[in-house]
Design a protein that fits this description.
This protein is an alpha+beta fold and about 325 residues long. The protein contains seven helices and twelve strands. The protein has three domains: about 60 residues, no CATH class; about 170 residues, Ku70, Chain: A, Domain 2 (Beta Barrel), CATH 2.40.290; about 80 residues, no CATH class. Helix 1 packs parallel to helix 2. It is globular and about 65 Å long.
């Protein structure tokens, strides 16, 4: 595994650069501890030894951070359940620094005033909204933290729905909701009610200056919150090819269904791995040892043109039968 520096040892500028490289959403709005949370959760890099637990699928997985991203309460009828919000996932991408191709020195970004040309300290930066070209209204962080909406500190459950009724395209990011000790019983009651009714709770929550639609569901003895896109954030598919008429024969559909049936099974996430990351780690290790790299061809082979779809489907079914025999 590639070694990187402890995130807690980095400056805010270095953390921000890393967040830029990893395309962390909302990075410009984050304080230093929030950048650490978004980049590594527990302040350690992916490669450093951290507390792990063996999951049901046999994999060693990192545990959640003890630092909540957000604290507030779930409002369910007249019941209030105090909770903390914690990141449920983390990216395991390999991070590269940007270097000068001439001398190998690090490239750094500076916050430079367009008026004076001088670098601006983080403490002197405010946020501005451009309402006309070159004209801004500015906001302090305290003003943004105190926008008068209920979802800043509460998640009001306004509706319940079957999870299958929600198109997965709306789901954005996954978090764990953990109870405060005083709300544990109400938390358990709410979770068990969701399990028994097979429903998810729909509400709104504000995280890092953005109000988001959210769905709350039970999973593995914990409540999971999925942030969701707003309807006007979902793009309409507009592809000329989909407007074209093609003849689809029943035999082709039946053969495609047969292929799907042969490839069907219970989803086992442990059966999959990030082969790109594995190969990249091998290449990094080879570079460190001064070994030659084994690279893929510069151009990918052209996909074979299918002249007879039914024949190709039949061949695919036969191939899957032989592999499963």
């Amino acid at each position: 595994m590639v070694q990187t520096k402890d995130l807690n040892e980095l400056t805010k500028e270095e953390l921000y650069e890393l967040a830029q490289e990893r395309d962390v959403e909302g990075r410009s709005k984050m304080a230093k501890d929030e950048l650490v949370e978004a980049l590594g959760g527990d302040g350690k890099s992916d490669a450093e030894e951290a507390k792990t637990e063996k999951s049901d699928d046999g994999l060693d997985r990192p545990t959640t951070s003890q630092r909540a991203i957000w604290r507030g309460a779930i409002n369910f009828g007249l019941i209030t359940i105090p909770v903390g919000l914690y990141a449920a996932t983390e990216d395991r991408d390999i991070s590269f620094h940007l270097l000068s191709g001439k001398d190998g020195s690090r490239i750094r970004y500076k916050r430079v005033s367009t008026k004076s040309g001088r670098e601006v300290d983080w403490d002197d930066i405010v946020k501005g909204y451009e309402y006309e070209e070159g004209k801004y209204v500015t906001f302090t962080q305290d003003e943004l933290d105190r926008v008068p909406v209920d979802s800043i500190r509460t998640i009001d459950i306004v509706q319940f729905a079957q999870q299958e009724a929600i198109d997965p395209i709306y789901f954005d990011k996954t978090y764990y909701l953990a109870p405060e000790e005083s709300g544990l019983k109400a938390y358990r009651v709410f979770m068990e009610a969701l399990e028994n009714t097979r429903q998810v709770g729909i509400g709104k929550v504000t995280i890092r200056e953005k109000e988001r639609l959210c769905a709350i569901r039970p999973a593995d003895d914990v409540l999971v919150l999925e942030t969701m896109k707003w309807p006007d954030e979902i793009r309409v598919p507009a592809f000329d090819e989909l407007e074209m008429d093609v003849e689809v024969r029943p035999q082709e559909v039946e053969m495609a269904e047969s292929l799907i049936e042969h490839l069907s099974g219970d989803f086992d996430p442990a059966a999959f791995s990030d082969s790109y990351r594995e190969r990249l780690e091998e290449m990094i290790a080879a570079k460190i040892e001064g070994e030659d790299l084994q690279l893929a061809p510069e151009e990918a082979p052209e996909p074979e043109k299918v002249t007879d779809l039914l024949e190709a489907l039949q061949a695919s079914v036969e191939a899957t039968r032989k592999r499963s025999a």
